Amino acid sequence: MIHDPDRLVAEIDALPDTRMFGRVTSVLGMMVEVGGVEKKLSVGGRCRVITRGGKPVPCEVVGFRAGRALLMPFGGLDDIGLGCQAEVAEGQAAIFPTQAWLGRVVNALGQPIDGKGPLPQGEVPMLVKANPPPAHARRRVGGKMDLGVRAINTFLTCCRGQRMGIFAGSGVGKSVLMSMLAKYTEAGVSVIGLIGERGREVQEFLEHDLGPEGLARSVVVVATSDEPPLMRRQAAYMTLTIAEYFRDLGQDVLCLMDSVTRFAMAQREIGLSAGEPPTTKGYPPTVFAELPRLLERAGPGTGQGTISGLFTVLVEGGDMEEPIADAVRGILDGHIVMERRIGERGRYPAINILRSVSRTMPGCNNEEQNALVTRARRLMASYADMEEMIRLGAYRRGSDPSVDEAIHFNPAIEGFLRQRKDERAPLETCYAELAAILGGGGAG
């Protein structure tokens, strides 16, 4: 409901003078072909197809073929047939977020799905498919950001405006790690996108993993795996759009997305349905064009606000060279690798420190802290190189002083990296704890 008379007048003035309709000429698979208005449409434009029962189904133009517009629906195709009306929608898709959206759960179209009533509407429209800020106008990344997770704070320190990937297979603990980041981060706002998530896990994540405390400072965007590919792709865009709104207010925003892989899969379904040729592992070219357009929207803005992005990537079987993982790793500012074998031995979060890197970390630490982290990594690497021999009892103490030192410190380092999901690890204490373990400096 609009209470501002000026806003009401503006809404009325924005109404189109005429309404244009085409007709459905073909339905094949997930694709609806519309004729009669193809010259009034463009790729990315919107239509509303009226079903035989009178229900409007929003659709997006994804291409053209043989003089007809190709549309994909945001809903089901039930009750849509030849001759159904297709009304052209004016303008680009936009939302009107406000601070009152914190604590709410919305779908890919920005509609509330949490049963808490309608969403308040703001004054400023935000385009759902916006372009990233121009590179020459963006600020540099800011100072350190406390994420509340000891392994990341210490060995993979993130800066405000940094973008990191979380690479892991299914069931390794990505959702729990995301909930810890959302609850314990020092960022004032978290925007969480659950893209292609299992339906049963959404409520579990909201109530059990995120909890009331985490939800109160978050906006959650949900598109489950059973929804059409256009909804899953749109949910990723919606997540970044809401994050951009809070960033433009000058706030530091933590944007969490699970997962980029399912966004890419949704784009693959859309591209193949539109007739694009499949390339690497069946992914059409638009997938690799859309990934940077999505991920580059995170980061510092042109003002004081920032979006610090953590995006999960599914790597089945630990294949880090899989096309999507390889493309995302080249776009982001670092990667966090989670491994099943680490979780199997009871250490959570199951982060492989040696395979993970934060590209901004050396520049945000002082020399003492960098030396401390380098020494700890060297000890972990020495132990990893000889781990099998140590477990088999084939290594004899005294053979290599560096390995002896690694064996001595390994239990303490493993204990340092282990963290319960209800435990917060402040950034200011992490380096001091590691220095105490290794008997060196670096607490500053």
From TrEMBL:
GO BP term, example: bacterial-type flagellum organization
EC top class named in words: translocase
UniProt name for this protein: Flagellum-specific ATP synthase
Entry EC no(s): 7.1.2.2
Keywords: ATP synthesis, ATP-binding, Bacterial flagellum biogenesis, Bacterial flagellum protein export, Cell projection, Cilium, Cytoplasm, Flagellum, Hydrogen ion transport, Ion transport, Nucleotide-binding, Protein transport, Translocase, Transport
Organism: Aerophototrophica crusticola
PROSITE patterns noted in UniProt: ATPASE_ALPHA_BETA
SMART domains (alphabetical): AAA
Domain AAA+ ATPase: start-end pairs: 160-343
Location of the protein in the cell: Cytoplasm
Catalytic reactions on record: ATP + H2O + cellular proteinSide 1 = ADP + phosphate + cellular proteinSide 2
Gene: fliI
Principal subcellular localisation of the protein: cytoplasm
Function: Probable catalytic subunit of a protein translocase for flagellum-specific export, or a proton translocase involved in local circuits at the flagellum.
Family listed: Belongs to the ATPase alpha/beta chains family.
